[in-house]
Specification:
The chain has three helices and three strands. It has 129 residues and is α+β, with helices and mostly antiparallel strands. It has two domains: 92 residues, K homology (KH) domain (GMP Synthetase, Chain A, domain 3); 35 residues. A hairpin with a 5-residue loop joins strand 1 and strand 2. Helix 1 packs across helix 2.
Length: 129
């Protein structure tokens, strides 16, 4: 991303987070966090990654609520950011937290299995001595 698109992405993230906290009334969107904003090179499209922290079961409801609020959010952002052209907003569910939890579970399982193997190896070495 260029410096300009990084700045615009940061502004969109900041203002959109504020809008979600103060202006959006849809109960489906309570507790939704804007995780990241990515802009294309021409600043025509913004991918906005969201998550309802700790509640993957709300994914469909949150995405439906965001689709319905998309016009309102874009209009409000346009009035606050004063860009020549406001990018189209494309909301996506952020799976980074889910992937991190999965990796943590795998690492924990490996640590548990390594611990049991180490105990077995220690016991086996004692028998040979």
């Amino acid at each position: 991303m260029t410096i300009k698109s990084e700045r615009v992405a940061d502004l969109i993230l900041s203002h959109l987070s504020q809008l979600m906290l103060t202006e959006v009334r849809d109960p489906r969107l309570h507790g939704v966090t804007i995780m990241e904003v990515r802009l294309d090179r021409e600043i025509e499209h913004a991918e906005i990654f969201v998550n309802a922290l700790g509640d993957e079961t709300r994914r469909d409801d949150v995405m439906d609520g965001l689709r319905q609020a998309q016009g309102f959010l874009r209009k409000e952002l346009a009035s606050r950011l004063r860009l020549r052209r406001m990018p189209q907003l494309h909301f996506k569910w952020d799976v980074v937290l889910q992937q991190a939890n999965h990796i943590e579970q795998v690492l924990d399982a490996l640590a548990d299995s390594d611990g049991s193997v180490a105990i077995m190896d220690d016991g086996h070495d004692d028998e040979q001595e």
